[in-house]
Amino acid sequence: VHKGKAAIKETFEYAFAELFPPESELNIVHKVFEENIAYLVYSATDAATGETYWTFATDTFIIENGKIKYQTVSAKLPEETEIANKLVLRNYFEEVWNKKNYDYLNEITTDVFTLHYGGEVTKASKGEHKDVVKFWTTVFPDYHVEILDMIAEGDQVAVSFNFTGTQKAQLENI
């Protein structure tokens, strides 16, 4: 239960940042308005690809004196699906690379994982991964990633992205 404008605002900011990719679109499937109750059934899709994120969600509103007094939300959300895995990667690029929040790696990576870097495939610790990111963001302090496309199947996600940045430190012989 969230009470007060600040708590409700925080909840909605989280929902839209974490549960809806940037191109999300809500599709109202059914709506009922009776006396002081409003009931909505909807799904959520990616406006660009048509991919469904939420197959089923509902909102119920209780209206009193022209204002929302109560709201309940229920949704069937993906758990370990391709959509959820894409979201992990989207957040990874935004938090770690664009915002340089290196500690975010502690939340989203296992202690040892496979790192594909510089044509090599190695096992890396969280600390080693942080070192790689810090190296690149030191060489390119304004390093910025723009995701172009993501393809997921099972637990694998392929990401096509552009990175831009201004080189400010030596990189190999450059």
Describe the fold and architecture.
With 174 residues, the chain is α+β, with helices and mostly antiparallel strands. Helices cover 29% and strands 43% of the residues. It contains four helices and eight strands, in the order αββββααββαββ. The chain has helices at residues 5-19, 82-98, 104-108, 126-139; strands at residues 24-34, 37-46, 52-64, 67-76, 112-117, 120-125, 144-153, 156-164. The protein has a four-stranded antiparallel beta sheet with strand order 1-2-3-4, with no helix packed on it. The protein is elongated, with a radius of gyration of 21 Å. The N and C termini lie far apart (56 Å). 5% of the residues are buried.
Strand content: 35-45%
Please write the string of helix (H) and strand (E) elements: HEEEEHHEEHEE
Count of helical segments?
4
Sheet with most strands: 4 strands, antiparallel
The span between the termini is: 56 Å
Low-confidence stretches: none
Strand ordering within the main sheet: 1-2-3-4
Total number of strands: 8
Quaternary state reads single chain
- Share in helix: 25-40%
Question: What spatial form do the alpha-carbon principal axes imply?
Answer: elongated
